[in-house]
Amino acid sequence: MALSLYMDVHIPSAVTEGLRRMGIDVLTSQEDGTREAQDDALLARATELGRILFSQDQDLLGIASVWQSKEKPFSGLVFAHQEGASIGRCIEDIELIALCCSEGEVANQVIFLPLD
User: Fold this and answer.
1) Count of structural domains within the chain
2) Which residue segment(s) compose the domain that 75 sits in?
3) What pLDDT, on a 0 to 100 scale, did the predictor assign at position 1?
4) DSSP state of 58
5) What share of the chain is helix, strand, coil (3-state, %, to 5)?
6) 3-state secondary structure of 67
7) Signed CA dihedral, 92, 94, 95, 100: sign only
8) pLDDT score for 22
9) What is the pLDDT at residue 64?
């Protein structure tokens, strides 16, 4: 079964739509009513829902690092620099992660895109 994703508010809708066309379960921050939530609240919400958070917000890297050092569990964070990967490449890489990884493999991890 594929992993589920939670999209940060700044993720282009084309990524969300592309993943949905691939059959990946995606929930956006906007759909969940967390559009104005702080970054740590987004990571907590994604974890509460059992979803991996996808973001291009560099502040989340610091938050995830703090959570890792404090051993505070989170479902996982997939991160792509805003200029680091095309929309198509993000869709391909996230689909691969969602289909090939288990919850245990991504839990408490930060995965950087593009995958190499």
Assistant:
1) 1
2) 5-113
3) 78
4) T
5) 45, 15, 40
6) helix
7) positive
8) 96
9) 98
